[in-house]
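Hypothesis: this fold can be encoded by more than one sequence.
Test: take the C-alpha cells below, design a sequence, compare later.
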C-alpha cells in the first residue's frame, strides 16, 4: 500500500501544480476573477484543471479500492498510468485541445480498470 500512497501523493502534487498554472495563466491573461472565459489561453489551463478534478473524484477512490480488494502494486501501476496520462493530456490541451485524446484515454482507461476491478474484487470477497 506504500506505493499506492506514493502515487496518490504524486497525483495530488500534479493537481496542485495544474492549479498553480491556472493562477499564472489568469495573471498573464489579465482576466479578472471570477471570470473563467474571455481569454483562450486561460480557458485551456482552466479546463485542464477542472477536467483533472473531475477525474480525481472518480479515480482516487477507485484506485484505493482496487488496492484493497485486488492488488496493491497493480493499483499503483494504474495510478502511475493516470499520472502520466494527465501530463500528456495537459501538454496536448495547452498546445492544441484537439490533440488531447491520447492522454485522456490513458487516464480514463486506468480509471475504468480500477473501478471495474475494485467492484469485481469486492463482489468476490462478499461471495
Amino acid at each position: 500500500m506504500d506505493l499506492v500512497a506514493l502515487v496518490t501523493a504524486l497525483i495530488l502534487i500534479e493537481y496542485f501544480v495544474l492549479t498553480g498554472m491556472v493562477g499564472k495563466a489568469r495573471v498573464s491573461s489579465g482576466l479578472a476573477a471570477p471570470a473563467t472565459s474571455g481569454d483562450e489561453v486561460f480557458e485551456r489551463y482552466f479546463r485542464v484543471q477542472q477536467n483533472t478534478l473531475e477525474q480525481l473524484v472518480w479515480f482516487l477512490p477507485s484506485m484505493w479500492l482496487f488496492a484493497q480488494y485486488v492488488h496493491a502494486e497493480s493499483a499503483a501501476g494504474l495510478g502511475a498510468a493516470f499520472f502520466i496520462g494527465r501530463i500528456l493530456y495537459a501538454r496536448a490541451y495547452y498546445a492544441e485541445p484537439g490533440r488531447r485524446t491520447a492522454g485522456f484515454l490513458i487516464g480514463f482507461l486506468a480509471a475504468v480498470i480500477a473501478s471495474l476491478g475494485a467492484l469485481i474484487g469486492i463482489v468476490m470477497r462478499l461471495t
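Residues 2-126 form a domain with the Four Helix Bundle (Hemerythrin (Met), subunit A) fold (CATH 1.20.120.550). The chain has one domain: 2-126.
Hypothesis status: open.
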